[in-house]
Amino acid sequence: MQTFDLIPHPAHPPLAVRTMEARVLSLADAWVRVRWRIDGVSKLVLPPFAGRGRADNLWQTTCFEMFVQPAGSQRYCEFNLSPSERWAAYEFSARREGMREHAMRREPDCTMRSGHSMAIFDAALPRENVPEPPVAIGLCAIIEEEGGHKSYWAMTHQSAQPDFHDPACFAAKLGPRKAA
């Protein structure tokens, strides 16, 4: 799978984070596996462990997000994944319209590993709850650093303010799965 470099929104630069990349690791089994890698984590703020469970407003601190839009559709899903292990999933009928909770029969699995200079966030979402390819995907993150400083990372930014719901942010394309 392809690795995507994420860039900070120019109106909200990071303090210490130097680079971030994200990639879809696997679609081959019952899980969609995604990884974010952050370099420059000396000032990174992580939410405290809260255990699995649905929660709103995860984006108010360090949070990783994936948007998935079926090809040819205006509807899309948003998945918010926290190092606290909390998560949220929403459906939209069009850009920022018709928001409602996206049903999840199984909870995502979130794991954060952090070292002196880099951190890895892995997420596994139940395959049955992610729209089937072909899809457009947006991989992004909100990063909080010391002092409440936030930067907003995506594959591209087209607006004066961060907007992960901008269709331009859904820059990754995944084709249909190949038959075995």
Detailed description of the structure:
The chain is an all-beta fold and 180 residues long. It has no helices and 13 strands. The chain has strands spanning 3-8, 19-26, 31-39, 53-54, 63-70, 76-81, 86-92, 100-101, 109-114, 118-126, 135-145, 149-154, 172-174.
Entry keywords:
mainly beta; 180 residues
Fold blueprint:
Elements: E1 3-8, E2 19-26, E3 31-39, E4 53-54, E5 63-70, E6 76-81, E7 86-92, E8 100-101, E9 109-114, E10 118-126, E11 135-145, E12 149-154, E13 172-174
Parallel strand pairs: 4-7
Antiparallel strand pairs: 1-2, 1-12, 2-3, 3-10, 5-6, 5-11, 6-7, 7-8, 9-10, 11-12, 11-13
In short:
The chain has 180 residues and is mostly beta strands. It is built from no helices and 13 strands.
| Number of separate strands | 13
Structural class: mainly beta
Low-confidence regions: none
Query: What number is the mean pLDDT?
Result: 94
Query: With helices defined by DSSP (H or I, 4 residues minimum), what is the helix count?
Result: 0
Element string (H = helix, E = strand): EEEEEEEEEEEEE
Give Rg in angstroms: 15 Å
Q: Estimate percent helicity.
A: under 10%
From the spread of the alpha carbons, the general shape counts as globular
Q: How would you characterize the largest beta sheet?
A: 13 strands, mixed
Strand content: over 45%
Query: Distance between termini?
Result: 17 Å
